[in-house]
Amino acid sequence: MTKSSPETQRSHTFSWQDPHIGADAARGLSGLDYLLAMQEQRIPPPPVMEMMGFEFVRAAPGAVEFAFLPHESHYNPIGTVHGGVISTLLDSAMGCSVQSLLPLGKGYTTLELKVNFVRAVTLASGRMRCHGTIIHSGGRMATAEGKLLDESGKLYAHTTTTCMIFDAPAR
């Protein structure tokens, strides 16, 4: 086993706000209004976005865009961004695209996620854009698709999801 040395040691810190601030705000807003409040920084993003380094770019009815800058802390043992990080980013964008169409009092959760990794993401990939777009939104179920692209538009991953829509629980 190789010991850590000062030359190889890394650290990564992040901070976040109380996640209940956003959750409580969501109970009084439509899905799109909630996302716009987060985009405009009137409510804090969920802690997972801070931890993973996801940036909220824009929300519109049925479409959401996030940005992501790969970091060494995202790497797997083979020196590329871990597929779980990429999947989390895509799941978040697609889920928020579903949320963007929900009326007040409704919530959603991911039931199924299918990811296709087209090429490896590394630090050299640079800033990435992740688009989530609705395919179908019904009363009890929605489907969406996602794409992870670099700044030049090169595709790195694409995905689909099925989400269940339900009455949002009271806290």
CATH topology: Thiol Ester Dehydrase, Chain A
Radius of gyration: 17 Å
Strand content: 25-35%
Query: CATH homologous superfamily, by name?
Result: Hotdog Thioesterase
Runs with pLDDT <50, length 5+? none
The general outline is globular
Distance between the termini: 48 Å
What is the structural class? alpha+beta
- The total strand number stands at 6
Keywords: Hydrolase
Protein name: Aromatic compound degradation protein PaaI
InterPro entries: HotDog_dom_sf, PAAI_dom, Thioestr_dom
Domain Thioesterase: 79-155
Give a verbal description of the structure:
- This protein has helices at 19-26, 31-39, 47-52, 83-99, and strands at residues 54-60, 63-68, 106-117, 128-137, 141-150, 155-167.
- Strands 1-2-4-5-6-3 form a 6-stranded antiparallel β-sheet.
- Strand 5 (141-150) and strand 6 (155-167) form a beta hairpin.
- It starts with 18 loop residues before the first helix and ends with a strand.
- It is α+β, with helices and mostly antiparallel strands.
- The chain is built from 4 helices and 6 strands, in the order H-H-H-E-E-H-E-E-E-E.
- It comes from Chromobacterium sphagni.
- It holds the Pfam family 4HBT.
- Residues 79-155 form the Thioesterase domain.
Primary descriptors:
Thiol Ester Dehydrase, Chain A; 23% helix; globular; alpha+beta; 171 residues; single chain
Question: Can you lay out the helices and strands and say which pair or pack?
Answer:
Elements (H helix, E strand, L loop, with lengths): L18 H8 L4 H9 L7 H6 L1 E7 L2 E6 L14 H17 L6 E12 L10 E10 L3 E10 L4 E13 L4
Antiparallel strand pairs: 1-2, 2-4, 3-6, 4-5, 5-6
